[in-house]
Amino acid sequence: MKLPARAFTHAGKFHADDVFSAALLRTIRPDIQIQRGFAVPDDFDGLVFDIGDGMFDHHAAGSPVRPNGHPYAAFGLLWQVLGPDLVGKSGADWLDERFVQNLDLNDCTGSDNALADAIGSFNPVWDSTESADECFFRAVDFAQQILTNRLEEVRAVQRARELVQQALPKAQQGILVLPKYLPWKTLLPADSNILFVVYPSQRGGFAAQGVNDRATKKLKVPFPAAWAGQPAEELPSLSGIEDLRFCHSSAFLITADSKSGALKACREAIRLAQESKQAGAEVK
After folding, report:
1. Cα→Cα distances 146→4, 92, 193, Å
2. Beta-carbon contacts of residue 140 (< 8 Å; ≥ 6 apart)
3. How many of the other CB atoms lie within 10 Å of CB of 66?
């Protein structure tokens, strides 16, 4: 969709919905002129959003609703059309689910949202002499930086997906090894048999995380309870892994000085889990 040079939205108190809509328009077309008012001029020839009952307004009866039941607000309606050109269809869907929907839901239902509250705080207080329009555009500047960050996040996930897909065929014994730290959790296939993911830690050495089952949200295989939360100096003797340095108290994460140490920790966790499962089967 080619954006016109002008856009129009409602005046008065603003919300995250119209602010992020304006931020999206300015991200795509920095020179767009956004006007605010209480009624759309009859001769207005630009894009109208969050007012006027048009394509990008959600206040009329029968306004669009997502398949999951979450209603669209103006931001979501604009994102549905403009987002795929910025980050592709899958990227637009990803960001809609994790970011846009929550802001739309806040606008349509009043549900709690810290970011929407932060945007609302840009409104002039009741006895202020500040211009509401000036406050609106300060909020748009703030929102545009957040939107820019989220767009880069989507693009980073898309780059990460390629590395995960390259690594998956090389996984062994349910352990996936990645070449660097990256956001992998949402990128594993739903039917994946991966139990642990090993990668270079941002703090040095290597880390390994357990993978949660998509249905139960619980770890497929935790690290041994005997390691969880124990002091670093005791972990080598408890685990038999010389360079094991940390095991989270929730048993989902370990760190080691070497990749081989992280792999040993994963293999030991898998071995102990299999033994426990076998013992339970024998008791039955």
Report:
1. 24, 16, 35
2. 19, 22, 23, 26, 34
3. 16
The residues that bridge with 47 in the sheet, in sequence order, are: 7
H/E stretch holding 33 reads strand 33-37
154: three-class secondary structure by DSSP: helix
Point out which residues pair with 247 in neighbouring strands: 254
Per-residue pLDDT tens digits for 41-92? 999 999 999 999 999 999 988 889 999 999 999 999 999 999 999 999 999 9
Q: Comparing C-alpha atoms, which of 102, 91, 90 is closest to residue 17?
A: 102
- Of all residues in the chain, the percent with pLDDT exceeding 70 is 98
| DSSP element (H, E) containing 254 | strand 253-256
**CB neighbours (10 Å) of residue 129?**
5
Structure tokens at 39: 């009624």
CA dist 23 and 132 (Å) reads 17
Distances in Å between the Cα of 265 and the Cα atoms of 37, 63, 98, 178, 209 are 63, 53, 33, 16, 10
Query: Quick one: how far is CA 141 from the chain centroid?
Result: 21
Report the C-alpha gap between 121 and 72 in whole angstroms: 23
Angle formed by the axes of helices 74-95 and 16-28, nearest 10°:
70
Stated pTM of the model: 0.79
The token duo for 63 is 């306004």
Tokens of 229: 């939360």
DSSP string for residues in 179-215: SS----TTTS-TT----EEEEE-TTSSEEEEEPBPTT
Contact 106, 112 (CB under 8 A): yes
